[in-house]
Amino acid sequence: MTSVNHTFATIEQLSTFDAVIDARSPGEYALDHIPGAINCPVLNDEERIRVGTLYKQVSPFEARKVGAVLVARNVAMHMETLFAQHPKNWRPLVYCWRGGQRSGSFTHILNEVGWTARRLSGGYKSWRHHVLEALVQVPAQFRFQVLAGPTGSGKTKVLEALHAQGHQVLNLEALAAHKGSVLGGLPDQAQPSQKMFETQILHTLAAFDPARPVYVEAESKRIGLLRLPDSIYEGIQQGQWWGLEVPVRARVQFLLQDYAYFLHSTTLLEQLDRLAATCGRVQVDTWKAWVAESRYPELVEDLLVKHYDRYYDRSMRQLQSGDARDYVLGTDDVSDTGFMELAGRLALRSQLTKGGPVR
To answer: What global pTM score does this model have?
Structure first.
């Protein structure tokens, strides 16, 4: 008979624990981690490099001697600062990269104290396998209501309003920390890793009810440097599309507010230079001159008409956008109140619309 190692737990048992502890280094944790896990490294980034170098250049024995001291010291610190107040019935789950020595040492010490600690079988690698597998299956359970519209029409604001009204929203640009356009980078905020992006998408969908619609913005295959999972992109293509029509003047008004941080930043001129290949150097130089003269309304309108709208029309021809022309929602009110009203109208019509357009 094969014996069962009861110190291990599986991905399916995650929700049965009081805490999930990521024993990897801060750098590993920052790239991706199980949602809700707290980072309690048994080796920090520098210590991990030190031990790894000893392992390769000296011997595994010397590496383990140094590693044991560092692990004991770090676990002791976590015990004193984070875990001291936990009662005897506290049940933590610990994981590292593969579910090996780092999480094993941590789990052993916690169990010796008297807590019922377990380590994740396969460690983070098993979690990553779970994410990739689930991202193939889970999105197919949902019917996406897809909001399409040119730059400045407030698609993200409508999604935020839908969320505030209690609807299920997959805000991909918020998860990607990027507004989706060539000038869409957020100030002082880097995009997450591809792995973290995928983890957050799955985590969001896992909390949703498949019987209810999920609202999402029409996206290309990339948001900044990140790639949409194929299943999400396909789900968007197969969803019910809604076209958002907002007059150019209202879109300019909205963008002047929504991109105020960017229009007055020192990086605006650098970003405009990125458009020279598609819009021409003469045109870009004109826009840069307008920046110097603070002619921002003219700049934004010209960017919309000569760059963004042109690429939006092209992308709509490439995407499944026929339905978006049949189901149209229009507004010229780009205030928060206007977006809340538009979100309510979209939610009502998406529930009523079954076999034909409702205007």
So the answer is: 0.90
